[in-house]
Amino acid sequence: MQETASILKDHGIRPSLQRVCVYQYLRSVKTHPTVDEIYMALLPKNPSLSRTTVYNTLELLLANDLAISLDFGDGFLRYDADCSPHCHFKCKGCGKVFDVFVAPPDCSKIVPAGFTLKATLLYMFGLCDKCSADETPTRWQAQTELDN
């Protein structure tokens, strides 16, 4: 917990107990949780925690480059404390999001003159290994048709 508090301090964030808990949780999971998932995971040990506190803490983490938000177009954001360059793969079967540790393409060479590129995000969609093994062609075709 002390290490997490130090990281927050180093980024100009006052390390309140709630902020430390949220950031520590985000750093410890690889599931790319939503605000509600973080809130529900932390609530049993932090009964005074509110969704608003979780949301505000995540906004602070984003503003201070300690987390990234992921928008897969399904109506809510997911969060990742791993800010290193990598890609994300969302399974169309189970809905899980996986890290893919390859560097995103270098788009800095193709942005118009005078533009400054701050981030490149690459989202991939398909079926994870478990869903691929369980998958039937009809299920995948129906989902693909819905997406188009």
Summarize the structure in short.
With 148 residues, this protein is α+β, with helices and mostly antiparallel strands. The protein has 6 helices and 5 strands.
Task: Considering the chains and any ligands shown, give keywords for the structure.
single chain, 148 residues, alpha+beta, Arc Repressor Mutant, subunit A, Dna Ligase, domain 1, 3-stranded mixed sheet, two-stranded antiparallel sheet, 6 helices, 14% strand
Write the layout of secondary structure elements.
Elements: H1 2-10, H2 17-28, H3 35-42, H4 51-63, E1 68-71, E2 77-80, E3 87-91, E4 97-100, E5 123-126, H5 129-134, H6 137-147
Parallel strand pairs: 3-5
Antiparallel strand pairs: 1-2, 3-4
Helix pairs in contact: 2-4, 3-4
Family: Belongs to the Fur family.
Binding site for Zn(2+): 91, 94, 128, 131
InterPro entries: FUR, Fur_C, WH-like_DNA-bd_sf, WH_DNA-bd_sf
